[in-house]
Write a structure and sequence with these properties.
heterodimer, A: mainly alpha, 78% helix, B: alpha+beta, Dipeptide-binding Protein, domain 1, D-Maltodextrin-Binding Protein, domain 2, 33% helix, SBP_5 (chain B)
Amino acid sequence: MIPKSLLKYLVLRLTFLFVTYIVALTIIFILLRLVPTNPVDRLITQLLQFNPNMTPEQIREYMKAYYELFGLDKPLWMQYLTYLFKAFTGDLGYSYINVGRKVSDIIMSALPWTLFLVVPATLAAWFVGNAIGAYAGYKRGSLFEKTVLTLSLVLSQTPYYWLAMLLLYAFAYRLNVFPPGQAYPPTMVPNLSLQFILAVLYHYILPFLSIFIAGLGGWAIGMRVLTIYELGSDHIQFAEALGAKESVLFKYMFRNSMIPQVTGLALSLGGAVGGALLTEIVFSYPGMGYILNRAIIQTDYPVVQGVFVILIATLFIANFVVDFVYALIDPRIRIGGEKI
Amino acid sequence: MMCKVKELKRLTEAVVLIAVSLMIISQFYVVQGQQIPREDTVFMIGVEWGTIRNMNPYSGNPTPLWGFAYLPLFTYSALKDVWIPTIAERYEFVDPRTIRIYIRAEATWSDGTPITAYDVEYTYYVTQQVGVGPGAGCGDYVEYMKAVGDKVVEARIKDPPRNYYSFLSCALNFWPLPKHVIQPIFEKGGKDAITKWDNVDPATQVVSGPYKIYYHSPSDRIILARFDNWWGSKIFGIPAPKYIAHLLYADNPAANAALEAGDADWAGTFIPEVWKLQARGIYTWYKNAPYYVGSGDIFLYLNLKRPEYQNPAVRKAIAYALPYKDMLEKAYFGYSPQATAVAVNDLIPAYKKYLNSTLCTAYGLTPDCKFQTNIEKAKEILKEAGVDPSKIHIEIATPSGWTDWNMMSAMIAETLRQIGFDASAPTPDFSVWWDSLTKGTYYAVIGWDGGIGFDHPWGVYRNVMDPRLSFPTGNWEGYKNTEVIQYIDAIPQLMAKPEEQLKLISKLQEIFLRDLPAIPLFYGAHWYAYNTKYWVGWPNNDNPWWWPTAPWDTQSWPLPFGLAKSGQTPKVPEWIAKLEIPTSKIIGDLMQTSMPTTTTSPATTAPPPTTVVTTVTKTVVVPTTIVSTVVSTVSSVSTATLTATTTVTQRVTEWATTIAIAIALLIIGFAIGWITKRK
């Protein structure tokens, strides 16, 4: 049975999360409406540019219709409440700029691409970064360690989008080895053929690399510090004194250093849904970040709100999950908890 | 313990992998593999950005591609000033206020139901309820539009205002939708349901044209397929392309790259230095400048709310100072000639009659009615008027990212400074720019205006000068002269009396030249380029068998009918010449039905003969800027190569030195590490 203390803790956490969630959504709502124009202006501009022969009467009618369609003629507090209710029931509404298209459809068409890009890249960066960092920490004092340290420092501070642009410029434009962007060639239609999958992977390499390389540094540094700390601990020194094999020592040390890294990974994955926004823009990768960017520029309120609803929810869930993962991985926390 | 963690790790990995793969696969399961043969398809670019829109005009923002699926009663071509009876067979003026339109007997929807006058009536009715859709805004000019027989539509003009331009445009240029499809939707769910209807399901879409939806993915592409049993096959024939497709590209350069590579055939995008593509078989309407047919007028609007701009001498001085030739060559690639000072589009032969050389030369213009850049004259005008330019502050604002306008306004500001004005050219974000126009806090902007159509140039004058209009529907500069109202109201009523109409138009022109409320700059180009790699027979200036030709214009549907595969001989569709009805014939018919007139003074607004003035408010599409609603990363590429009188700087990275320094630093770093280790 779940102990009462744990239950209390859970409920408190959930309430806190809920309140924070509403506050975050409110902030998004307010921020969007602080921009001087509204989506109707943009739609009218678009219409006027493509139909210079629209009579003033037509423009007037279209403006009226748009205001009604978007519910912008209702008072602000009503819009706000509708927005909140709908967010919790999962109805994210309809896009303003791409009139008639459901926001959830737009997001669902972009989400898989973002996950496909960010999750494997983050995981790969995590594994490889940790491995390199741990080994560097273990082989403290060697040339390898020094190189890793310098390189990781440089890489971790490199803005990932700048790295993306560099890669794009070098490999796609100058050397013409990789395609300059998009998820798949525009002449192909998504299907399950081998040809298509290969094309997707081909377009995948550069964005993947940009996130991978940029993330590598951070993890490596963190892991190195943690392993150095672990190396100084009693149980490792004791095992060393006993003459345990290197691989055994390495295993002990690695496992203990992992815990903060796992937290970091969980949080990182939680933020994955937001997409490496700038990477996606640089590579025109049709993911969440790309959609969000376009929606903000076009003041497409429902899409921006929808993306943030999902983003914030995912982040909070990730946060929430991290606590439990902690307990699973570290027996000390589990045992300690039971004692209470 | 260790095993548990390893297992957990492996489990997490596996789960994540499966989840991600499922998510990706699921997206594709829904999609069937669509392979359409390249040589049977016309690929277009420049119509859809960011997302493919739906095909429902009641949604307020449909894709113009619906013009291939749904045809109007009459189609209008502004270049030739003719009407083609499409779904309708003929028209008849019952009396000077009423017109009857007879729908073709053979006209049927794609599901076999005949197209009737009830479709027209119902479509119009729903538009009145919803506000947008075919015939939007017509309620002010049309008394009613109803069915008086299975195939007979009757429309009556509303008086006042008895505006024949709008009336005829509303009645003739009308797109009916299938009543048996929209009625159930509208009656069940009302306005909400009809505006949210997509109309992109290949299984249920009912069309009147030769193409039907084949595949639609909002994030990816739209494909229309030819409907071979189309009702019009005996009258109009069958177009050669089996498919019409539009793929989504990330931005303008990406789409243009596809055109260059031969992956696209029909372009409606802004293409920098388009003449260079002629070597690849990509052409525009004209082989030389201005390459494109101009459409809408682009003006320099000065905020007339500001007292310092209210002196016409200031505006005239500015008009003489502008560097028209330079501006258009450098910022706009020469894609438009300078606009006439009377805002009449002189590229279209039919409108040349509205240019009055005597009037123009009397007001200091060239005989072809244009302002000639003359800095000395500008300074003189200011001196004569006793205006000190250094005290006048001008900011010509253009939205950031619209690089052609940005560049133009920078050049304008520079010349204005030469005369002595305190001028600058800021580029605020679009929302700030629009807001300054809404609130009337701007100084000067470059903005658009009405385009060419049946009612040119009255439409332009109305949009610019009518004091009853305000931003964004018209009169951006805030001109407050009530004298023009009588002319603006009278001209549309005098359709059957072209000489009187011309007199009034001249009067309006005189007022325009006298006051110069806004300064016409150039014509927004009607973007049209085509690639002859796969398809030939495209209309152009040497073979002008149809216009409009931009893919985003709903009246460009005749284009596929004149195309042939590359290597074959294309044939101009004969039905165009056979069916076309010039506007003058419609005017003539109207004049015949009108009763003999008693004397009418030019200034009165209610002559006894109801002269039918028709304006065609066409859906002529003119993207006047590079970026419409596209991410602004587009424009930065195109104008980087131009260095004119503007301050466009280009940074060139010194690769050699950078790499050398980098390598040197790396070696030094290693050396330090090795030295410290040794210690």
